[in-house]
Predict the structure.
Amino acid sequence: MRRLRSIGAFWYDFVVGDDWRVAVVVVAALALTAVLVHAAGVNAWWLLPVFVFAALGWSLRRAISGR
Amino acid sequence: MTALPLILTVFVACAVEAIEALTIVLAAGLTREWRSTFQGMAAALLVLAAIVAALGPTITLLPLTALRLVVGALLAIFGLQWLRKAILRATGYKSLHDEASAYLREVAAAKAASTSSRGRVHDWYAFTLAFKGVLLEGLEVVFIVITFGANQGNVGAAAIGAAVAVAVVAVTGIAVRAPLAKVPENAMKFAVGIMLTSFGIFWGAEGAGVSWPGQDAALLVLVPVVALVALCYTVLLRRPRAAPSASVPASEEVSSS
């Protein structure tokens, strides 16, 4: 069990890293894009870049403010 | 898209990882002993080969749309992690990665550790140091090769980029017999973060069903835009030289990758 947990922690750290909020924003933006494309018929190519840039700025701000 | 951008991106990303692995291997080999170091390297390379053999064919079996969605999301998250660290370094909120000081830290730890043997491994410390170093840095190489290669349907080209990067770094390391401290590693990491994030956005959105204006040519706009945004954040957040005490959590300050 402990080994499984440490393997999980390693992969979490490997992919997600210091700020899990960035990963949540990316996944949420992709889900929203898919909904807009498939349900509303909007070719929302601009949505993911906007969310990614916002997430990066937010994460940097949090890191710098030390929260 | 031609194979050249793919090969170049993988080459730069893998060269950065290979430089970090080389620093650890040199510290183990020069301070402890080479035989156990090479055994550790060989064991790590075997594990990496097994991961590639298991993951490579599996991931290419996925439908292209699902593959692009999953891999795009992973690359965007992974790339943002690199970019975030690179910007924090460039703005002065995180110490620059320095192979010379990383080498000195590893050497000090290697000199202080006692020698113990296990089975055919004479120096367990040298073995584990080389094993961990090559495995951890190699995993990033494997991740980049598989994701980029599978998405472009050209794992071979990605593997060539990675192999050339590892070979160039290894040959240079053997010739110099010192960590490659003069390589502009922080700038390379910044560039890799931009490329990983850009490709992640591109493939992730495609996987979600988007049609990019201009198809693949959209990358020619997306990469400079990501670079521009990253540079803008760097300029805006640049730490004033007169105020050295801005606080970044200690856990982030010491991270080296």
